[in-house]
Amino acid sequence: xxxxxxxxxxxxxxxxxxxxxFTILTLVAVAGxxxxxxFPAASCLSSLGSIISFILLMVWFHRSxxxxxxxxxxxxxxxAGWAVGSFxxxxxxxxxxxxxxxxxWTASDPxxxxxGWKQSKISIVIILWWISLLSYSGITxxxxxxxxxxxxxxxxxxxxxxxxxxxxxxxxxxxxxAVNCILSISLVTLINDRQDEKAEKLDLL
Length: 205
Prior knowledge:
By secondary structure, the protein is mostly helical. It contains six helices and no strands. The model is unreliable at about 1-10 (pLDDT under 50).
């Protein structure tokens, strides 16, 4: 049974600017990934954009969960620190970040009371976001293994992999990454709007 943790009340802080920055850098990362398939040097742009956007996503998770305290919601299960830390705990990171994201969503319901938020509907976007993140991770691992195998075969035979073999690595990763990025932007945007709307109703803005 989850231990209930009640955050200490803190002033509400809109994540609007953070969300805009995250969106821009995420799109830069996707663009860099696409360009890197034609210009290898562009992989630096993709890598830098991915790293920074991930850091911003962690900052966003922390701030978004911290905002729940300003709504005076009762019965919160986690904490702002755990909202970030759950991404880095093996096995637990397969489901806990999803649960925390859904709690942020339901507890930010503009129409719900400090207790009634638990009856709010969960988000389909968060479900799709989490499925896409797990899919991207799985595809990346499998294609990495395939890439190592191709390199090993090439070293033995002296024959470079053909275009079809290289595409079999790059395209699935690109598609799954792009889908996850789009859903990540949607997640951040929707929760930001939801929290700002609730904050306005509570005269916190």
